[in-house]
Amino acid sequence: MKASIIYRLIISLFLFFTGISVFSAENTFVSLSPALTEMMYAIGAEKNLLGVSTVCVCPPDTPEKPKVGNSYFINKEIIIKLRPKYILAADGSRTHLQNFDKIGIKPLYFELYTIDAIYNAVTELGEMTGQREKALELKNKIKKNISLAKTKHPKRILYLIQINPFVTIGSKSFLSDEIKQAGQISVTQELDSFYPSVSEEYLLKTNPDVIIVSMKSDEKRLKKLFPDKKIIYLSPEMNDIVNRPGPRVDEAVKFFSQI
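User: That's the sequence. What structure does it adopt?
Assistant: Structure tokens below.
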């Protein structure tokens, strides 16, 4: 018995010091976050993913997975039936997942508020699924693409999540980091918040060069407010890329850099 314990200890120490992951495909997950779902696919760990959220649509075969709810509504019965080891969730889902630990399913919360946080999430998921090398390759690819995308001619960008009411991005949003990494200037960077509501008077004072709107609505109001400014409305596809802190963040940075 003692020999068996010593043997397992030696193997564990060997794996640790040689850098070989002690995790494997035995770790199973369900995801409540489209960004984390994309990461799992991007590192080749989709087989570890037993279920996804009702809003996960990328990659194309994601809808084939069982649906386990979303950040606001958790389908506890399906999750229990699937019996994953972990639930992948954004930090905002914390209050809805408090009781899963008691039944042996551990929620993992990710605060994806910066691009560095995205790198850390990719690394962690790679470790937990035995996909360390693919996770490292993905992280290095994203970093390289971002470094190549940075503009040398910065513009002042006003990013609006919506128009009625006006909701923009503050310094705590990962979107502000995307704009910064693109070499551009977010005119609402001074706001110490995630997605604050702002007045028309405040927007006029920001004096942007370009206005980017996440969702197309009430174009007349915005055009009246900024008659001489360039206004860009995101397509549904680009909306997913720009507004999702996932493995396509380099594409979002490239989009902002080319404004």
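Strands lie at 29-31, 49-51, 86-90, 106-110, 156-162, 167-168, 185-186, 210-213, 230-233.
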